[in-house]
């Protein structure tokens, strides 16, 4: 919880002063009562003392005052609400290493299935696009609220050599920054980048991440694969098996620079869980919800309660 006008909370300093004044007044009244009647006779003259009830209304009033002062400070809390207009570009690595079978059935197929689950979970109002990249990026589907088109675009994924992560980010940025909402403003946007390796061709991925940060478009990254991943490649007349372990370091830097989050997935279940989590996160935004009315209403209710107790027990508003 936060406060839009925190200076008003300085009024809480008055409460200890009022409490001290109240205690002093009670002591003065006790002294006057002791002067009027000898202490040994007090029990016979006033056998039914209010004891704790004497102070209960004032305690309620003090709490009510604190709540009203807090209300003046305009309390608010951050709540998550569905995004009504947003855009997400799914950037999917289709380099040759994505044919590795360490993530069943293959890394590429696992990414495709996770993407389809993402589309099922993200709000229908959010525009989603799909881009594949190997040695160069290709936009298979521009950001659209028709998620069926994006599902169909996943069927077009095909592997080839190279990993141009920087170019993929720049192409995603160009696609997202041209979008406009009905009010003419650019909708809140994000990039979800999945890859299993380090960039080895094209623009610098870290420089591209800085461009994303400048455009206020965070990049969430997912490093897919296990250290045991291998693929078969031809070298001349022979087919050899080479290791293709994931390289999450660059992806983590991209996420950090752009203001996104970095994840790693070593199996299909983990990848699906990450995409489901990101669908929920990217499909919602946090907004400030004012609590002034709640605090003011609670404070006024306590004022009424304290007044009712005082009238019921003592026949007056303040004891």
Give a description of the structure.
There is one protein chain. The protein has ten helices and eleven strands. The chain is α/β, with parallel strands linked by helices. It has two domains: 103 residues, no CATH class; 199 residues, von Willebrand factor, type A domain (Rossmann fold, 3-Layer(aba) Sandwich), CATH 3.40.50.410. The strands form three sheets. The protein has a six-stranded mixed sheet, sandwiched between helices. α7 links the parallel β6 and β7. The longest helix is centred in the first third of the chain and has 23 residues. It is elongated, with a radius of gyration of 33 Å. The mean pLDDT is 86.
Report the radius of gyration as a whole number of Å: 33 Å
Shape: elongated
End-to-end distance, in Å?
35 Å
**Count of individual beta strands:** 11
Mean pLDDT: 86
Helix content range of the residues, please?
Answer: 40-55%
At CATH level 3, the topology of the largest domain is Rossmann fold
Strand order of the largest sheet: 5-4-3-6-7-10
The secondary-structure element order is: EHHHEEHEEHHEHEEEHEHEH
What's the CATH architecture name of the largest domain? 3-Layer(aba) Sandwich
Q: Main β-sheet: number of strands, strand sense, barrel status?
A: 6 strands, mixed
In short:
The protein is α/β, with parallel strands linked by helices. It has helices at residues 14-36, 39-45, 52-72, 107-121, 147-154, 165-177, 205-214, 248-258, 268-282, 292-314; strands spanning 2-3, 75-82, 87-93, 127-133, 137-144, 189-195, 219-224, 230-235, 238-243, 262-265, 284-290.
């Amino acid at each position: 919880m936060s406060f839009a006008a925190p200076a008003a909370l300085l009024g809480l300093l008055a409460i200890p002063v009022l409490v001290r004044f109240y205690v002093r007044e009670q002591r003065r009244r006790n002294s006057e009562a002791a002067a009027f009647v000898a202490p040994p006779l007090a029990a016979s003259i006033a056998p039914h003392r209010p004891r704790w009830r004497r102070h209960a209304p004032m305690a309620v009033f003090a709490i009510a005052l604190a709540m009203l002062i807090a209300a003046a400070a305009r309390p608010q809390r951050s709540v998550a609400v569905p995004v009504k207009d947003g855009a997400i570009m799914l950037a999917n690595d289709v380099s040759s290493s994505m044919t590795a079978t360490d993530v069943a059935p293959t890394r590429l197929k696992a990414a495709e299935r996770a993407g389809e689950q993402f589309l099922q979970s993200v709000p229908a109002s959010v525009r989603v696009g799909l881009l594949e990249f190997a040695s160069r990026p290709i936009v298979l589907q521009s950001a659209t609220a028709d998620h069926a088109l994006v599902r169909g675009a996943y069927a077009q994924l095909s592997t080839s050599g190279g990993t141009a992560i920087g170019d993929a980010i720049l192409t995603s940025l160009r696609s997202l920054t041209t979008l406009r909402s009905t009010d003419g403003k650019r909708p809140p946007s994000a990039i979800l980048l999945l890859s299993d390796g380090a960039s080895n061709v094209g623009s610098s991925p870290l420089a591209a991440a800085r461009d994303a940060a400048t455009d206020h478009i965070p990049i969430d990254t997912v490093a897919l694969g296990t250290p045991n991943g291998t693929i078969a490649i031809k070298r001349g007349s022979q087919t050899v098996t080479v290791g293709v372990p994931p390289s999450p370091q660059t992806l983590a830097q991209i996420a950090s620079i752009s203001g996104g989050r970095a994840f790693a997935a070593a199996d299909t279940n983990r990848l699906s869980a990450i995409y489901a989590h990101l669908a929920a996160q990217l499909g919602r935004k946090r907004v400030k919800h004012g609590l002034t009315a709640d605090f003011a209403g609670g404070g006024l209710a306590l004022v009424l309660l304290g007044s009712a107790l005082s009238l019921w027990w003592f026949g007056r508003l303040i004891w």
